[in-house]
Here is the input.
Amino acid sequence: MEKKNCLRDALGMLKRARACTEESWDYLEEQIIKVARAWSVQLEEEGSQDPWELAVVCWDGKRYDRVRELLSQVEPPQDKTGQWLYMMAESCSRLQDYEKALECRKAIWDSCEEKNRSLELYMDLAEDYRLAGHREKALELYGLAAETFSPNPEIFYRQARILEEDGRSKEAALMCSRALEAGFHREAFNLRLALLLDMDQFEQVREEAEKIMEQGYRPAQVLYDYAKALRELEDYDGAEKVLKELYERTDGSEMVSEEYAWLYFDMERYEEALKWVLEAIEKRDTFRRQYLKGGILRGLKRYEEEAAVYRGLMDQGEDGYYICYRMGRALERINRFEEAETWLRKAIERQGGVGEAWDSLGDVLQKQGKWKEAVTAYEAGTELENLQSARDLCRLLKRLHEDQKAGEWIGKCLKKWPEDGSLLLLCSDILYREKKYEEAVRCLNRYIEVRPAQTERGYREIAQCYERAGDLHKAREYYQKAIDLSPGNARCWRLMGKFLANEVKDQEQALPYLEKAAQLAPDSTYGFMKLGEVYEALGRREEAVKCYERSLENYKADLDKDPDDCCSYEGISDVLVHLGRLEEAEEMARRAISLECRVFTCSCPYCFESYEDLAKVEERRGNLEKALEYMEKAGQYSVTDYYPNEIARLKEALKARSESL
Here is the structure.
């Protein structure tokens, strides 16, 4: 009895001490809970006959499961009905029985006259409505509390929290602002910053964070959101500085490690990004971090490892849209196109309304030579208003020589994206093919209007239109305009030189332009080869060979960067023909043809220039029949006027040889 009285008296004194304190004292609260629990256990061991007394002591000891059990066994004392309902409501809520908690809280509400309902009761009942899933009712009650009582930041914050959980970000941000107008509220301020980040209002986050920090408020959460905003605004140095402070203040928080990884990922400093994401994963493994790791490995071109990351996530049951999509893209990078197609189709099954996935599927189908299926995929992406799908669709139709259909789609797409430079260039290409040169020039002038930074390219394209139309004076004028606008651009000089050599037939005039182009671009491939051709035409064979060798060297350097570049193999084949290395030239041409499906920018799906190279090889070998066969194939795939002339020349050569026999 003496020990029981000691515990009872101790609890009473502790509760009186709490009533005398002006602020919450954690140590005191811990002592109250400790003593109450000890007393409740003692009462149970002694077989207490007063369930109500035991329930109250268990309540002080936060033994909520026991409180609910005891209250369920006893009717509340006549003068304790309100306390019984309150304790039952709180216990049920703590035990996540929200419907029962709501039932008890509503009973308290109904038992009070409207004028006697406290703000705490409004708040508790509204919270029970939220937890029980009646979110609109909770919002309604919080709104009523805001009207009934003086402005209270907590009311507005709780409304903001519900709105944020329901995905109503703008409304939630406005409610946070109302909370802050009523008085500073830490959670409301932090939530507002998080919402602004989600809405990509990065400049506003930066301004509000800097303003509050100037007032001396620099909690870790604000610094964290500030760093994210700086990263999104590409103030990488500023973000890095803030993260360094955060990392030290939080003793290496996993969240800071992850944000470091995102920062270096955005900066394309992939090795550092990988180090930080691995540190974050070591502290706590999450889907987001594994997904980021996959992206970093992609940046490092470690595609096999990237795919392994996604397989690991799938083993854990994560096989949603993003994982399937990224798996498809990783497999595409290592040339496993059939598997890539399978995963991209799975991604589309999971979320078919994403145009990017349809566009990627179209790319993979092209790389397998499935042209019609690729068109269908790009059409689906275009219908979903994915701009890249629209570009790829129009380009592929043009490459397939379906000019009428391409023109129709380009027209529709330009209505949707009237200022897209890529579509305007494709439109000019179709008009150029149809020999509607003036219309093509007007289209290119429009391109210059909407892309003034690309004026030099527009001039070059206009020059080619006039060249094809046979207006050599105008063609030369626009090539010169391109040079005058961008005198440091090697391509402008090279195209002028090529034009003078091929169309004007003046090798002497062409030479200084091609020499200037080579000077401006010492790593040029085609530029040195063309310069070699002009030297050779002028009888300067030794200088020509040096240019061919330099071109070959540069092509090989390009292949070191991209071993699957079809165009580099074709260029090497052409150079080797000039050097008379026919066996090697044939090998390179066939290698180019094997990779032709991976080139999306060429004027057709087949590497017609490689067939031309094979024709040149056979002609040099004296095999005119085979040369003609290859040249006819090149002409079949191409849409230029060059090949009909070459085919006619070879036929004449065959005829002449036949007659001589």
Notes: The radius of gyration is 38 Å. Residues 541-561 form the longest helix (21 residues). The chain is about 80% helix and 0% strand. The CA atoms of residues 338 and 368 lie 8 Å apart.
